[in-house]
Please model this.
Amino acid sequence: MDLKLYLHEQCTRIDAALDRFLPKETDLPHSLHKAMRYSIFAGGKRVRPILMLAACQAVGGDSERAVPAACAMEMIHTYSLIHDDLPAMDDDDYRRGNPTNHKVFGEAIAILAGDALLTEAFKLISDPRFTDGCEASGLLAVIHEIATRSGSYGMVGGQVVDMESEGCRDIDLATVQFIHTHKTGALIKASVVAGALIGGAGGQQLAAIIRYGEAAGLAFQIADDILDIEGTTDEIGKDAGSDEARGKATYPAVMGLAAAKEEAQAMMDEALRALEIFTEEADLLREIARYIVKRKN
Amino acid sequence: MDLKLYLHEQCTRIDAALDRFLPKETDLPHSLHKAMRYSIFAGGKRVRPILMLAACQAVGGDSERAVPAACAMEMIHTYSLIHDDLPAMDDDDYRRGNPTNHKVFGEAIAILAGDALLTEAFKLISDPRFTDGCEASGLLAVIHEIATRSGSYGMVGGQVVDMESEGCRDIDLATVQFIHTHKTGALIKASVVAGALIGGAGGQQLAAIIRYGEAAGLAFQIADDILDIEGTTDEIGKDAGSDEARGKATYPAVMGLAAAKEEAQAMMDEALRALEIFTEEADLLREIARYIVKRKN
Model:
């Protein structure tokens, strides 16, 4: 399988669906809808939606049914980036080489565009026009999973601890683990679990997917920490070395670069082991786990 | 019926449920959960939850089943207040006589507490521990209704137009109507519609409740505009006359105080007419509509 080609095709598929689902810029209020679309189409790799579709397929489901929830997940990821970049938070002027939302639309609209994207995600998953072939009880479980992993016990909680740890000396591994499993890991896990639920996973399949999601989520963030050190500014679309400059809690910071690389590899191995109950239907999830660790951006 | 006593009892009921449903302050991250609870318990009148329970009863449903969704609605209302008060938005230091969330916890936590409350709302409605006796398809419809009315085509959209109209001369009635029906009206409407859906409303009942919600929502906001002029700072818990000082788009500003009062009354009459298909089971909704217009805070 040519993974690069596959990822590119899935990216195009998700982008087209996002364009279909998102409010039009011609609808009122124009500024808000423009701001929402600006950040959604600012060059995301669509990792979470692609993972959701792949997990749906891995358990034998029709990935087409997971497209709305996959787009909802990207909206949640995007809202979190818009709010993270705000002056009161990370105060970033650029993201993926483009000016951040508040630099273009102002802080007030950026806050509201984030709020609206988060809301739109739940509106989309529950939209009766797009729920054909999905059980209502399954979709409720998907909403519950995504909301749980995105909220105060998930992504938002991770963001708070990340922020409160910034610049602190002597951050321990447990704290970095908490931040990584919550801030990034939670949405990765929710993506594959939601995909498995929509695909009609049985109990054993779901348990395997959860285990995969946890390991792959952590691998993803450790790889990100490493990229911040080893990648060039051009490759990663933000200032290389910015984590260290900010005193961010990262794996390399607490255990050194070599040990962090070993840990990322170990997490990838764990993700692959979790998939042992599947045959070739989970090959995409396997390839994505490998890609997560070796990617250059 | 003693409405004041009834409202007080329902307020206590909702407060107890909110306390049960909200993350505990002892759970990590403490600062975030503290901030979420601070604004939830900062003296809200619980108008939206009470309307939801009353609408559920009006269509013959068991209001107990609507309690989680009613609390979710209060979380959404509260998140919107936290974000509205931010320096980048209305920049308010006080709300209901208490320091605003960002004055106590800082801007970053205030933004994240708002995000977490919005997310928690959808987590709560879809929580399998609290959905006993509710049809999954009905709850999906509730989530869709609430998300639609809270998002870019509802409350958030209204907030954007309100903000963009601030200080503009020659705001016309259509714009003020757009702001009011979206910024405040949408959540009031969603509250009664969600209550009716949970109560198992038939098509004719639902249509009546929608009509009631639209009229009562507009009446509520016009009454608010009037209170801002006629109430004392002590009564309304914020600076009296602050709308005018800010050049806010209000009914009294575009049509004068007397005409605004007539309009509020006309909307209340319309809300009562909408309920004509019901007998005494809708008396609470009737009383609340009357209260909305004559309240002093």
The longest helix of chain B spans residues 203-230. Chain B touches chain A through 55 residues (CB under 8 Å). Residues 207 and 274 of chain B are 9 Å apart (CA to CA). Chain B has 15 helices and two strands.
